Automatic annotation (TrEMBL):
Gene3D superfamilies: Tetracycline Repressor, domain 2. Pfam families: TetR_N. One of its GO terms (molecular function) is DNA-binding transcription factor activity. Keywords: DNA-binding. It comes from Intrasporangium oryzae NRRL B-24470. Residues 49-68 bind DNA. InterPro entries: DNA-bd_HTH_TetR-type_CS, Homeodomain-like_sf, HTH-type_TetR-like_transc_reg, HTH_TetR. This is TetR family transcriptional regulator. Residues 26-86 form the HTH tetR-type domain.
Length: 207
C-alpha cells in the first residue's frame, strides 16, 4: 500500500500502488468508466445495468465483469479519483483540513468535508458500500479516513482513539447520510454543524 507524508503527522495510505496496464486494457478501462459515469448521470445508478455499460463503452461483457465484477466495483472505481482529490487536500492542502492547524480543528474540518463528499456522491457511495456485506469497511479509502481520524484523536490525548474514529465514520456512512437527507428530509448544512459538534465531543480530552 502506498503512503504519503501528512506534513505534521504520520504517513497515511491512499490506496494500492498503480498497476502497469497494457495499452488496450487501459483504454477499455477508461471507456468503461466514462460510459458508466455518463449513464449513471443520465439515468440514475439503479436504472443502469452492466450490460448497458458494456454496450455504451464498446467492450465485451466478459471484459467488463472481469475488470469490475459488478456495479459496486464500477462505483468504487469512479469514486477513487474523487476520494484521492480529497485525500490530497488532507495531506497537503491548506489548514484546517490540511496540515498546520490544531488537531481539534482538523478533525472538525475533516468531518464536514467528508460529510459533504458523501452527500455529493451519495448514490455512487451507497452502491460501492452496500454491494456486498462489509464492503464499506474493506474499501482502501476507509483505511485512510480511519487512520487520519485516529491520528487526530490520538493527538488530542483521548482514550480509545481508534474506536472513536470508527464511531465517527459510522455516523458518516452512506446509509446513515442517505437516511438523514432522503428519508428524514434533514438539511445538509444543519447536519454539517451537528456532525462538527460530534467531532468536537469525540475529540474532547475530558471524555
Amino acid at each position: 500500500m502506498s503512503t504519503h507524508a501528512a506534513g505534521d503527522g504520520p504517513s497515511l495510505p491512499i490506496g494500492p500502488p498503480p498497476v502497469r496496464e497494457r495499452a488496450d486494457a487501459a483504454r477499455n478501462r477508461r471507456r468503461a468508466l466514462a460510459a458508466a459515469e455518463a449513464l449513471f448521470a443520465e439515468r440514475g445508478v439503479h436504472s443502469v445495468t452492466m450490460d448497458d455499460v458494456a454496450a455504451a463503452a464498446g467492450v465485451g461483457k466478459g471484459t467488463l465483469y472481469r475488470r469490475f465484477t459488478d456495479k459496486g466495483g464500477l462505483a468504487s472505481a469512479l469514486l477513487s479519483e474523487r476520494a484521492i482529490a480529497l485525500q490530497g487536500e488532507i495531506l497537503g492542502g491548506p489548514p484546517p483540513l490540511g496540515p498546520g492547524a490544531p488537531p481539534e480543528l482538523r478533525l472538525r474540518a475533516f468531518t464536514t468535508a467528508y460529510l459533504r463528499f458523501q452527500a455529493t456522491h451519495l448514490d455512487l457511495v451507497l452502491l460501492s458500500e452496500t454491494s456486498t456485506p462489509g464492503a464499506r469497511l474493506r474499501k482502501g479509502s476507509y483505511a485512510f479516513w480511519a487512520q487520519h481520524a485516529e491520528m487526530l484523536l490520538r493527538a488530542r490525548g483521548v482514550r480509545d482513539p481508534l474506536e472513536r474514529a470508527e464511531v465517527l465514520l459510522a455516523g458518516l456512512s452512506a446509509e446513515q447520510v442517505s437516511s438523514w437527507l432522503r428519508d428524514q428530509g434533514r438539511d445538509l448544512e444543519a447536519l454539517v454543524e451537528a456532525m462538527g459538534r460530534l467531532a468536537d465531543a469525540l475529540g474532547s480530552a475530558g471524555t
